[in-house]
Amino acid sequence: EARDAVDEARMQVAKLIGAGENEIVFTSGATESDNLAIKGVFEQLRDKGNHIITCSTEHKAVLYTCKHLEKKGASVTYLPVDKHGRIRLDELESAITTKTILIAIMMVNTETGVMQPIKEIASIAHKHNILFFTDATQAIGKIPVNVQEYGIDLMAFTAHKFYGPKGVGALYVRRKPEVVKIIAQMDGGGHEKGYRSGTLNVPGIVGLGKACELCRQEMDKEAQRLKPLRDRLEQRLLEIPGIHLNGSPEHRLF
Ligand SMILES: *Cc1c(COP(=O)(O)O)cnc(C)c1O
User: Fold this and answer.
1) Which residue lies with its CA nearest to atom 3 of ligand 1?
2) How far does residue 162's CA lie from ligand 1's centre (Å)?
3) How far is CA 224 from CA 119, 227, 228, in A?
């Protein structure tokens, strides 16, 4: 029964993001997924190169993972953002070197809701034969995300940011048309296709799956509820002298 429940949850998660069931790796949350993706690619492609491109407004789970890898021989470019909190695509492209193995740019910012130009970033990455990882924790369950349409190789997210339980999340690892290979950060019994050993958190995973299913059905309605609340809060705050909007009025959630 437990096995069936996990299988069903895997299907629910995959369906929300347009992935295959065999492309979902269950983890303890986005922090672990970020670590697994970035460290996993770095170790896998160490012979090909050591350069990672990310940006200065990433979540600490990405920034400090990159800092950690700098001590292990990685070279990391932290792209700045413009006044609307977005990276510049020309700066991204000119930061690429022959040693670049990974571009790690979040989909939606944790504090400002600013959306990065994900499709454009993915196509620049693939043009240069570089893997593209996105921390989509603030996007999943709130806006439609299709990993194939966006051209994402690896994607992290966590259940409790969309009404699911705490302590469970997932990493999407692309398998089609080619398998994206990463080195596991947890060695053991080879669970989750060897990407993440350790007995599965069945109740957490079931909760993650259910949250994905509900979000798939209700996210449009929920966005319609949240947007006017956000707009009203923002409008009233902006009436206070000296307050300005930190972020982008255009490229953001909802
Ligand atoms: C919340 C958050 C995380 C961390 O998620 P955990 O479930 O606490 O590991 C990582 N990245 C982003 C963008 C977040 O908003």
Assistant:
1) 30
2) 11
3) 25, 6, 7
